[in-house]
Amino acid sequence: MRKILSVIIVFLLSSAMVCGQDKPLGLTYAVSGTVTDGVSGRPLESVHVSIPGRHQATVTNADGYFVLKSDKEIDLVEFSFLGYKSRRLKPQESMNVALQRENLQLAESSIVSGDPKAIVEAALGRVWDTYCTHPELLRCFYRETVRKQNRYIYVAESVSKLFKGKYYGHVGADAAALEKSRVLVSQRARDTLSIRMMGGPTQAITHDIVKNGDIVFNADDMPRYIFKMEAPAYIGDRLQFVISMIPAATADYALYACTLYIDRELLTFTRVEASLDVSNKAKATRMLLVKKPAGLRFSPEEATIVINYRLDDGRTRLEYFRSTMRFTCDWKKRLFRTRYTTVNELVVTDVLPEAQPIPRKDRFRSSEFLVDKASEFLDPDFWNDYNIIEPSESLEHAIGRLRKGK
Questions:
Q1: What SS3 state is found at 397?
Q2: How much is the CA Rg of the chain, to the nearest whole Å?
């Protein structure tokens, strides 16, 4: 359960299977635009874009661009991002939104006061009270990509459902299912290896660190950390304790360095950033790699996850998940290494009205691969009625090249 991301490296296979597709949702209203830093003009990635009072949402892509869709007319759009003031604006045909950084004006005593470990333990003790106390069915957009050096060799996307049981239950009750999906795999002769990411959208279930405390907050690991109070920050309009967890002891497996954002008023987790210690390559490899061809050397360089939780109707729920892994591969007796980067990203785009459990036969298992279930990347209107993370310009370009087999 401590695995942050599991990959299998195999020889490239280009075949794909077709999965079923649901009926269109009828999201006939939409707004789009770009979100930037109000001072530098730099595009802001992963800004949460939502409709106040509704559950439909999305996030901005690497270019700061977003498209938000709804089945009802959109009267107001909200933008929130770590360290910036939230904004609510009337929708326009094309929105160019500049967010301003939040200026903290707190006394020094209020910034550093409090025992950081005690605050974390208090937040863990409140999970049963502050997170969803009833099952929920979430609609999500999920994307996974693989880059070889700076070139994309694999893109897969899906609209999925996540069934999330009560937060004082176990993640074993949670499940994921695909509604529709598609995949592109490089056809270049030189791309002889395929990086396959195990679990697909179920990764957001397995790595829900607040619910699945075994990953970091288990009785064995907690004494191995030093807890440190960092400078506070705003997420949206809510002030957060920022607490770092730094490994201060060793274990038989690699540990995580974490930064926790905890709502100062409610003592709920708002954001978790976790980075696997890859200084011991052998320990990190055991955490990350499931299988590889004989003679191939695997060397992990980075493995991180980011999870955002959102306060909604007085309860906190999963909002966004992202995992990133960087590693190199080379064959024995060869001089050059090839660097690979994998990114898995999931955003909750809607909360469905009836939280019916996903039938066992329809569940996406944590041992399965999206590439085996997705259809080919052909229909240009594939995501017509779904909120998605819009592809960045570089990813759109990559998709075009992959379609042509370049």
A1: helix
A2: 21
3-state secondary structure 46-68: CCEEECCCCCCEEECCCCCEEEE
> In the sheet that 48-50 helps form, which strands lie side by side, from edge to edge?
57-59, 48-50, 77-80, 87-89
Smallest CA-to-CA distance from 22 within 393, 366, 350, 289 is with: 350
Residue 305's CB is within 10 A of a number of other CB atoms, namely 24
- The single residue listed with the structure tokens 């661009």 is 65
Is-contact 95 89, C-beta < 8 A? yes
Pick from 131, 211, 123, 121: nearest CA to 171: 211
d(CA 54, CA 207): 26
DSSP string, 95-111: EEEEEPBPPP---HHHH
Amino acid at 375: S
> Cβ distance 86 to 101 under 8 Å?
no
Task: Note whether 342 and 197 are within 8 A (CB).
Answer: yes
Dist CA 372 CA 233 (whole Å): 42
Say if strands 338-352 and 136-148 run parallel, antiparallel, or are unpaired: antiparallel
Closest CA to 117 of 321, 258, 270: 258
> Residue 4: what are its φ and ψ, rounded to 5°?
-85, -30
Give the domain ranges of the chain: 7-22+106-403
97-147 pLDDT, tens digit per residue, is: 999 998 765 544 444 457 999 999 999 988 877 776 788 899 999 999 999
- pTM as predicted: 0.89
Angstrom distance (rounded) from CA 346 to CA 340: 20
| Residue carrying the six token digits 């679990």 | 199
What integer is the mean pLDDT of 314-343?
Answer: 87
Length of the chain equals 406
**Contact by Cβ (8 Å): 92, 77:** no
CA–CA dist 147, 187 (Å, integer): 14
Burial of 325 (0-12, 13-18, 19+ CB in 10 A): buried
Amino acid, single-letter form, for residue 106: L
